[in-house]
Amino acid sequence: MEQYAIRGGNPLVGDVEIAGSKNAVLPILAACAMTDETVYIDNVPDVWDVKTMLDAMQGIGVTVSRANRHKAMLNAQDINNLIVENEAIKKIRASYYLLGALLGRYKMAQVVLPGGCDIGSRAIDQHLKGFRALGAEVVIEHGLIKAKARRLVGSHIYMDGVSVGATINIMMAAALAEGRTIIENAAKEPHVVDVANFLSSMGANIKGAGTDVVRIKGVSRLHGTEYTIIPDQIEAGTFMFAAAITKGDVTVKNVIPKHLESITAKLLEIGCEVKEKDDCIRVVSSKPLMHTQVKTLPYPGFPTDMQPQITAALALAEGTSIVTESIFENRFKYVDELTRMGAGIKVEGNTAIINGVEKYTGASITVPDLRAGAALVIAALAAEGCTMVDDIKYIERGYEDFHIKLRNLGAQIELVETEKDYQKFKLKTG
Ligand code: UD1
Running DSSP on this structure, what letter comes out for residue 383? Predict the structure, then answer.
């Protein structure tokens, strides 16, 4: 099994091109099943979750082809199965988007209960509440979520909590329902807006995406379109923190700076310089990092998907920092791994109390989930000596060419398969 071998100590320097947003493309691919016309999607990130979603869609009869690595063409005129239950799709959270998409178009769908990273209980009650409000019968049986409706009819839905997935899923089903739907307390994340823009380009009538009230006027059919996915906010943020932690100078390119404001604000607070241009941001870290406090919140707050990365940086900052996780209850599992590298972090409930240390030291560590994996890698890049990172499959779910992009910025990182390869890497880089 592949692992990353990393020798820390090199500041990351240079430019890095950010891929399309994983969390936008997954629902957008699912939404391609809502029309019988061809849809062309550009800036598709080449990551494991996307491959899994495309495989699942092919499994129900969607034709998928790629003009190049980042351009996909989907045609869903020959869908022949409304039951999505292949093995791989169970592993991704975004499988549930096929429910909203297929229910919208066919008024019936069955999809396996979602998997994804183990970062908390990850309920789906708000998705089901939304589908039921639109008139669907929804049951969970034999590991499948089964939804069907004679007609879908617009409704006024108040979300009990802010959920990205539920907002998008309800928006998709409501786009093809009869009449008007209002989603109150909707999620405002950039990928919610991207999905709304995509659906609108297919002929949907959606207003208010990006605010907490989304209004949808159902249409009878959607048509084909060409669409370019927004840049990945979290991949960009990860490289920005990689610059901070390695005392580097990195420019993230092809980004939307507005989507990165909460991340930029924290980098400034901890003592980095951040310079924005139209579609790139440069982060320079030349002073000792300073402590701060941060609480994860729905957009425009600090993203939960950046929590492990900021924690990894604050563990090397002067003084005591506090990180509070308010979205997922089980998102500090990686702290044990950072502790192996010398971090001084105590977790109490949903809060991490971080006493900054002077340095990390390389160790053998295991990735518990996607974003934690990225955080552990950037910690290893700042560590003294070598680190072996196990279970990198989680990282490959959401980061395209992660180690290659890091290497292009001057990191010493390689994919290795055996202990012997690791020893060779140590000799070569020592
Ligand atoms: C999405 C992202 C994930 C990100 C998260 C928050 C994808 C594929 N994943 O996950 O990377 O960390 O948004 O920005 O886009 N909840 C309920 N009931 C529901 C739905 C959610 O109680 O029906 C709770 C969840 O347990 C969690 C919170 O609401 O505590 C937020 O979840 P949600 O925004 O739905 O996250 P996901 O869509 O799963």
Answer: S
Please report the DSSP string for 159-201 in residue order: -SS--HHHHHHHHHHHHTSBSEEEEES----HHHHHHHHHHHH
SS3 for 377? helix
106-124 per-position pLDDT tens digit: 999 999 987 766 655 668 9
The strand pair at 108-112 and 144-148 is best described as antiparallel
CB-count burial class (<10 Å; 0-12, 13-18, 19+) for 41: buried
> What does the buried/exposed string (b/e) look like for 123-138 if buried means 16 or more CB atoms within 10 Å of the residue's CB?
ebebbbbbbebbbbeb
Report which protein residue has its CA nearest ligand 1's atom 39: 165
CA–CA distance, 290 with 72 (Å, rounded to integer): 44
Beta bridge partners of 95: none
Q: Is 280 a catalytic residue?
A: no
Ligand 1 pocket (Cβ < 6 Å) reads 23, 26, 93-94, 120-127, 161, 163-166, 187, 304-305, 327-328
Integer Cα distance of 80 and 78 in angstroms: 6
Atom of ligand 1 nearest to the CA of 94: 8
Q: Which own/partner pairs from 95-98 qualify as long-range (CB within 8 Å, at least 24 positions apart)?
A: 95/53, 95/56, 96/124, 96/127, 96/145, 96/165, 96/169, 97/26, 97/27, 97/30, 97/31, 97/165, 97/168, 97/169, 97/172, 98/30, 98/33, 98/56, 98/57
Find the 122 Cα to ligand 1 centroid distance in Å: 6
The model's pLDDT over 224-273, given as tens digits with 9 standing for 90+, comes to: 999 999 999 999 999 999 999 999 999 999 999 999 999 999 999 999 99
SS3 at position 368: coil
Asked if residue 23 lies in contact with residue 191, where contact means CB atoms within 8 angstroms, the answer is yes
Q: Which of 164, 171, 399 to mutate to test the pocket of ligand 1 (most atoms within 8 A of CB)?
A: 164
DSSP 11: P
